């Protein structure tokens, strides 16, 4: 069985595949201070809890946009699973031509999402990931990674609003109905919700123009389920896109 791991700036998402079937998945916070042993015990415990047999893991693939946690995670894979992980980076076959000025600069999560989405839908595509940052990526009809746009994420933008003001409280990001609001919490929720829905429509609109027409729009990431129903430009939500992309890339390298 294959263990796939995506290390983001906020969360590490893990999944176990038996062939093409995702048996289970987990989300733990990314903590640079956690040790090899702490990650090992935590991850093996998740397995026990969900009745996945950790001893059946014979391969691991990792994508990461947080370099400082990688030495710890690599040691964890060796010590707790007896496996040398395949790490997304130069030399790994993704099957996708990266048109960035410097292909090494693109976040591994963005490439993995693009590979996963192209394998399922073909191109042209626009992929939106609502994580710590909101990323927009464009893939051509022929499957080239064309580049994209990076915006501050919904969570960190909202946190900044709370931190830099005296009277604005912490809020939950939720779907709102109206935008003329008569209390602080609802006003903030409406501003965040309609603001980020508008951002999606705006950026996708510009991207489609640059792509020269139509593109399928796929959304993923923690907050996609809140934003997508209101964003007309989003065609599908794929919550497990990154895990799926990791499995596809693993298969291309074996
Ligand atoms: N409903 C919500 N209301 C407010 N903040 C939220 C909500 N859901 C998530 N967040 C915050 O948004 C940020 C991104 O969370 P999310 O779960 O989308 O991350 P992620 O997809 O794991 O990101 P990454 O892959 O970059 O680690 C976090 O700071 C999180 O605390
Ligand atoms: C934009 C994030 C933080 C999203 O996780 C990540 O993909 C990243 O660190 N990317 C590197 C810069 C780039 O993709 O151009
Ligand atoms: K993610």
Automatic annotation (TrEMBL):
Protein name: Type III pantothenate kinase
Keyword Disulfide bond appears in the UniProt entry: no
Gene Ontology CC: cytoplasm
Keyword tags: ATP-binding, Coenzyme A biosynthesis, Cytoplasm, Kinase, Metal-binding, Nucleotide-binding, Potassium, Transferase
EC number: 2.7.1.33
Binding site for K(+): 129
UniProt source species: Megasphaera paucivorans
Compartment(s) where it occurs, according to its Swiss-Prot or TrEMBL record: Cytoplasm
UniProt similarity note: Belongs to the type III pantothenate kinase family.
Gene Ontology biological process: coenzyme A biosynthetic process
GO MF annotation terms: ATP binding; metal ion binding; pantothenate kinase activity
């Amino acid at each position: 069985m294959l263990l796939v791991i995506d290390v983001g700036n906020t969360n590490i998402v893990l999944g176990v595949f038996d062939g093409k079937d995702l048996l289970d998945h987990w989300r733990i916070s990314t903590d640079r201070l956690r040790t090899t042993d702490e990650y090992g015990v935590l991850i093996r415990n998740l397995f026990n809890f969900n009745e996945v047999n950790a001893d059946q893991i014979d391969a691991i693939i990792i994508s990461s946009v947080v370099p400082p946690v990688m030495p710890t995670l690599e040691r964890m894979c060796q010590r707790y699973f007896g496996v040398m992980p395949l790490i997304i980076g130069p030399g790994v076959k993704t099957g996708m031509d990266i048109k960035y000025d410097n292909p090494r600069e693109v976040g591994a999560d963005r490439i993995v999402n693009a590979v996963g989405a192209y394998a399922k839908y073909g191109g042209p595509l626009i992929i939106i990931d609502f994580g710590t940052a909101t990323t927009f990526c464009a893939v051509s009809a022929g499957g080239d990674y064309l580049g994209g746009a990076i915006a501050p994420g919904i969570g960190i933008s909202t946190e900044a609003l709370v931190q830099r003001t005296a009277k604005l409280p912490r809020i939950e990001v939720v779907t709102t109905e109206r935008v003329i609001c008569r209390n602080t919490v609802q006003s903030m929720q409406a501003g965040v919700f309609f603001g980020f829905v508008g951002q999606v429509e705006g950026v996708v609109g510009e991207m489609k123009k640059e792509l020269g027409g139509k593109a399928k729009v796929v959304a993923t990431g923690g907050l996609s389920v809140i934003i997508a129903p209101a964003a007309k430009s989003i065609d599908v939500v794929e919550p497990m896109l990154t895990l799926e992309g990791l499995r596809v890339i693993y298969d291309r390298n074996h």
